[in-house]
Fold this sequence. Notes:
globular, alpha/beta, 13 helices, Rossmann fold, two-stranded antiparallel sheet
Amino acid sequence: xxxxxxxxxxxxxxxxxxxxxxxxxxxxxxxxxxxxxxxxxxxxxxxxxxxxxxxxxxxxxxxxxxxxxxxxxxxxxxxxxxxxxxxxxxxxxxxxxxxxxxxxxxxxxxxxxxxxxxxxxxxxxxxxxxxxxxxxxxxxxxxxxxxxxxxxxxxxxxxxxxxxxxxxxxxxxxxxxxxxxxxxxxxxxxxxxxxxxxxxxxxxxxxxxxxxxxxxxxxxxxxxxxxxxxxxxxxxxxxxxxxxxxxxxxxxxxxxxxxxxxxxxxxxxxxxxxxxxxxxxxxxxxxxxxxxxxxxxxxxxxxxxxxxxxxxxxxxxxxxxxxxxxxxxxxxxxxxxxxxxxxxxxxxxxxxxxxxxxxxxxxxxxxxxxxxxxxxxxxxxx
Length: 382
């Protein structure tokens, strides 16, 4: 080899060496950062995430999908609370709500199609409207009486689809609604916490990128399995408003749910989420007590979207939860659970008032019409 060739080979080797050293250093720094986070005191370390179980059952939908569900809580309760989870999650995302509300209420939790323990659906049936149909069939099969619906993110959209497609259920079967970290639409316009120009660029390239990656979903999933530290750090900062103090155990729990959702499923539901538009369905919720909750640092379904929903439903209770982001039911469970208890109390109070009014109307004695003689001697009815 000539001196020039040896020099070029030496330069190339040095470049590769520096690059390899940089990658190794980045990986080491990442591992060091995650390790330090995990060494901090963690109050949730002993929490049995993913281990709380109810009575398992399935609901077979009209298009043949056997949805997985669990019935839990107090089965003699007059009111059932139905939980609808979000995109890439599963019914276990309601861990704290199941734990704290089950002693006093009947609970139904279900995995949306292609999520959790529910089987994969065909891509053409991964739509928000189809999720609304699924919820109607879950209510028909598992909820014998009045209920309160609670939806997080895509689960809130599912409830809006139910309202649009089955408005007759609201007021009679559905007595109350909680919409948590959700939106009526325009998700394709959100900033994602980025500068406007960069946000527009991201939205422009994301659909094509998602579609391209979907074709190699198995390879993407293999990469997700080995990228836990990166996923942990990203989720810690993007999914939670108080990243410095969020429990590493909670972050791991959420990351495991997201990782268990195949990338093909993520890609199949992505267009439905971006095209979701259910602002008109909110009017159906007007007769029933409604709570709207959102973290003040939510970048995925921003506060402005929840404020717009609250403006469309002036009777709703609007709660902006401080120092929290999209996973508010896991980050601030006490606040969310208190709001749900308040909603349930409002529903029960309304039901008691209605029941008393019906009882009074039923028990009222018929008024007997008698002749009354006025002082001038003329007879009148009374």
